Q: What sequence folds into this?
């Protein structure tokens, strides 16, 4: 099916498949086609492992959070014993969502016919069903595969998905610095952007644009020689690199305590990495971030930013005001600098006159990710 769908794109795909020095960007249709977006839902978002939440977002027994990936609603919750669960937010009777938003509860009640569910998704009551011969005892809201990793909750809609350990194995050694299990989450910030999700993923990897587009904000923070910057390309579209850069804040000053495992390193330590398909990990001397990009339609996306700090940062009475300044600085740069630019990229992708341009050395990780993406959607 996919090859017939993509037959007319094969010459352009072949150009992207070339070695980076001779390669071109992907054809615009990959960012605008509803048919290709349907392939992505099937082969990427509903087939592999996806980030759902941080454990701090469901910290206490009874905490829950309603989420959605690729249009599929689900719930992440923590039961009385402290175990984390994930299951579809669809009543077993007619599929109506049994919860909304986030909060703390002892049970979920379907607003249509009042079926009740325990916090772990088990059926507890099916009112006025006494004449039905189908026994619902022991049934539960459709569970998702779950995995906990460094304080993150991952889920998969695919019951036959390969173990999470196999998914994360190529990254474990490279991510020695991403010690989010030794950090605390401040908040998750969500930004809606008018472009295809892949343009946002590529933008977060793209070092080429930073000194140009981000001149008003953090464009001058990078101390490394861009010509010498090298990406470590990992399995299945993953990548990582290190650089020298100041903390992300107004003027590049340090606002929070040094991350404990960096105390013997220089204050310009900076690391970045990417996990296929849509996660971007970042470290500065005083902070960690996880970026997640989710499609909301073929031409719109959500950018989720998780910010984490050393536990001691939260002891500062001024932490909240410092964090507000921090997130305004970062999200301001994204909203005011990246945001309008990726919308312009989306417009270009839809033009019949758009011709994919050549790849720069600083787009090495973008090229690597594009090729793994093509492996998946054209298989």
A:
């Amino acid at each position: 099916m996919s090859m017939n769908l993509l037959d007319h794109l094969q010459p352009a795909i072949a150009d992207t498949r070339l070695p980076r020095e001779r390669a071109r960007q992907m054809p615009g249709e990959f960012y605008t086609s509803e048919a290709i977006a349907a392939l992505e839902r099937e082969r990427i978002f509903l087939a592999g492992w996806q980030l759902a939440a941080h454990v701090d977002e469901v910290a206490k027994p009874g905490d829950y959070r309603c989420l959605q990936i690729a249009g599929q609603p689900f719930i992440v919750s923590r039961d009385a014993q402290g175990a984390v669960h994930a299951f579809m937010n669809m009543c077993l009777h007619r599929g109506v969502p049994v919860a909304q938003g986030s909060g703390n509860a002892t049970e979920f009640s379907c607003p249509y016919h009042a079926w009740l569910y325990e916090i772990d998704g088990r059926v507890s009551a099916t009112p006025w069903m006494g004449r039905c011969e189908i026994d619902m005892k022991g049934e539960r809201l459709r569970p998702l595969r779950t995995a906990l990793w460094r304080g993150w909750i991952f889920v998969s809609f695919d019951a036959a998905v390969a173990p999470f350990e196999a998914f994360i194995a190529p990254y474990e050694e490279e991510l020695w610095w991403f010690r989010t299990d030794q950090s605390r989450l401040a908040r998750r910030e969500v930004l809606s952007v008018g472009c295809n999700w892949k343009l946002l993923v590529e933008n977060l990897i793209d070092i080429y644009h930073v000194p140009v587009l981000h001149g008003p904000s953090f464009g001058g923070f990078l101390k490394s020689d861009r010509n010498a910057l090298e990406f470590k390309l990992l399995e299945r579209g993953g990548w990582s690199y290190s650089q020298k850069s100041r903390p992300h804040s107004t003027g590049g000053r340090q606002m929070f305590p040094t991350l404990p495992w960096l105390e013997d390193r220089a204050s310009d330590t900076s690391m970045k990495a990417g996990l296929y398909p849509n996660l971007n990990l970042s470290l500065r001397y005083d902070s960690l971030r996880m970026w997640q990009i989710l499609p909301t339609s073929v031409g719109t996306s959500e950018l989720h930013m998780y910010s984490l700090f050393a536990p001691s940062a939260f002891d500062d009475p001024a932490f909240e005001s410092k964090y507000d300044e921090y997130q305004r600085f970062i999200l301001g740069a994204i909203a005011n600098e990246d945001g309008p630019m990726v919308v312009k990229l989306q417009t270009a992708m839809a033009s019949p006159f758009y011709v994919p341009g050549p790849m720069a050395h600083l787009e090495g990780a973008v090229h690597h990710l594009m090729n793994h993406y093509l492996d998946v959607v054209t298989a």
Notes: The CA atoms of residues 265 and 285 lie 9 Å apart.
